[in-house]
């Protein structure tokens, strides 16, 4: 419901805006009560208390035919949609394992009640206390550490480094799902047009980080299959690492000049990788297949670095 109200001046420096009577009644307010003001550049959001409560969302899953992945995907879907409570009726061990797996992989999800056939999941997350920028910064730092450690692993093969990288890829997945939930919940904040576009840019950025981590994980698996070091690839990995670092820093610092440098250098590095594709043809067949996976991953990381740089440039018009 839209309404138009006049502003009245009171004294030398104050202004008065009357509130609709029906809104006062519906929210149980009375004279002397306080309201919460969320002040934005071109709008003022008035709430009936100092806590903006999102409605509690509850649902259930009850389908005997669902397999492990289907149950997991449905739980993730409810998580991303901002649900706070979910009852899952399980018909077999596979479905129970899916519920347990979901509670481990999703931040804030706990199994609050297990009655055998019905498992209750509660999501304990207060989106207002979680800073989206800090979450994606953490994702960025973890991705950088993964790429840096992969360079160390390919220089002097150590399986334990690979195991550490794989564990961190799981952390990236957790943070990515949390990021998507925060972004989906942002609609409750009555965002301005520019704020909505900014949140959308964060989604693109987070997706690039998540995909980068996936490719590093695949690169690690390939190197483990090979079981030995390939120091001759350290140079191109270091270049990719530097490019990725510059692109992520440009996003947080809103550095258009750095973003342009990323786009200018990306094609040069891609050409280096193309030359390496030709070089590995002299290796053994098994080596070629696994090294190609590594080079494919590096090429995709350069692509995601370019995507981040483009988002940085696009975001500059929102300032």
From TrEMBL:
It holds the Pfam family PhoU. This is Phosphate uptake regulator PhoU. Residues 9-54 form the SpoVT-AbrB domain. PANTHER family: PHOSPHATE-SPECIFIC TRANSPORT SYSTEM ACCESSORY PROTEIN PHOU. It comes from the Archaea. GO terms for biological process: intracellular phosphate ion homeostasis; negative regulation of phosphate metabolic process. It comes from Geoglobus ahangari. One of its GO terms (molecular function) is DNA binding.
